[in-house]
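Running this now, will post back.
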Amino acid sequence: MTAAIPKACVMGHPVAHSRSPMIHGYWLRTLGIQGAYELKDLAPEAFPDFLTHLAANGYVGGNVTVPHKEAAFRLVDSRDEASEAVGAVNTVWLEDGRLMGGNSDTHGFIANLDDRAPGWDVPGGRAVILGAGGAARSAAYSLATRGLTVLVLNRTLERARSLATDFGPRVSGHGLDALPRVLPEADLLVNCTSLGMVGKPPLEVDITPLKASAVVYDVVYVPLETGLLAASRARGHRVVDGLGMLLQQAGFGFRKWFGASPQVTPELRALVEADIRAKTGN
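Update: finished.
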């Protein structure tokens, strides 16, 4: 009798739109791994029982998306440093019978930068982050861990300052009115808001104070090239889009569940780009 193949899943409500099965399915095929990755649409009342009995339900781990991230943070047996710092669990796996929780966005954020803009982390570097939500928390943690000075700018000053207090002296919070003052010294500008996303208002930022060597990063990936990235590219800046973050973060869970290290190949990127264009026209 053959052993059951390892299975992982993405848990959310709804989850039909998720591109995770496409990404993990590609890696399973190209690496020749006998495994599966599935969608599990779980209403909030069904999620806790499903997660705490993950092995009995036939899974070795999975991704957690809206609206279950806060519940997952509470329910896991142990959390890694990144998820503790960011306050969110979006990846779970079993380790010696214990349910472990991690945050793959922190890994994806930095891995994408390293891949798309080598040498971005200059000594004494300064990063400006726009926004103070979950993506901004992942970015601030990742950048501070790499030794950068991080300035978080948000429309609501209190939210920016609240975020900053969680990450130590390298991170400070400011209102959006500080942007003209801080941009000239920025080595990295990161949009962690939803502005510029399909269906959202545009991000209106004057980037002319940015020095030529600054890298511009937008975590939005629909559209594939946001207005911020198009304007930055036109000025000669190196740009980093959000699709790479999506792809790179997926590798964190894959390594936990299937024991292999996948690569973000041009073929995989083209596959996901084609799906985005087909479904959004962007």
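Residues 75 and 83 are 13 Å apart (CA to CA). More later if anyone needs it.
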